[in-house]
Fold:
Amino acid sequence: MVTTRTSKPEGRSAHYNWAALGRVPPQGLVNARILAHHALQWPARAARANLKHVADDSHSSLQWDGALAALVTQSVKTPAGEVCVGLRITGLALLVVRNGAILDVLQLNGKPEQVAGIWIDSKLQALGLRPASGVKLPYALPDHPVAHGARYDLYLQERELGELARWFAGSAAVLEDARERLADMRPAMTPVRCWPHHFDIATVANLDPAAKENPRSIAIGVSPGDGYYAQPYAYVSPTPRFDTKLPEAPKPGRWHTDGFFGAVATGDALLGLPNRGLGFVNFIMEAIDIGRKRLGA
Structure:
């Protein structure tokens, strides 16, 4: 077994400005999170319309692009170059990106979903791609007035959306660090992706070949909040769950056993750490180490 290292921050997370987090309390992001979750479905629809379907639904997932400060889809090849669609959470704007550069932007504030659909469809069709608005999502979203014809309204949400974006940026940095530290793991960890169904950003350490029956794995991610916690939280979720007495959870976390199993560290607990970046990384790496030992990997 390879023991994970937790002695120092490395890679992207060591250079992230962790002091910028906390301008809005983690519990105050619920409304902004649900608003952004609905907006994210436009890039997801565009991906579903134009990328080959994959059984695990990863074709609809997005990645955090630090240069664009946005969540963007996987690229689609067109005669004019590689195209992707994204969401900039700060300010809530849809992006069409070609060859890594922003081609066009739609600010969602004051616009209903119908306008967003017309805009994204026209941009995709101009690039020779299929429209997004006709795509039916195979999952339900938290209810919000925009789903019933209301306009996107950023009034009193600008600060919250900016804070939400900082959570995604920092989380992406920590998860990329985890992948780098576990680069020798085989099978390799999955790419760090944002899943539009739950709106979490995550990677998975697959501990067995995919063909094995009941393969062992550890999901590592950060949710911006959901029905379990009304604030961002980091999680490390081993499969299968432990069937014996739980060990002490890595600080500043706890074991979550209702609905899903894993070590969880809430946003307020992470913000309370004296060294947020190092503490965040250490929580994840220590929880992974516990999971590997218990699963015999």
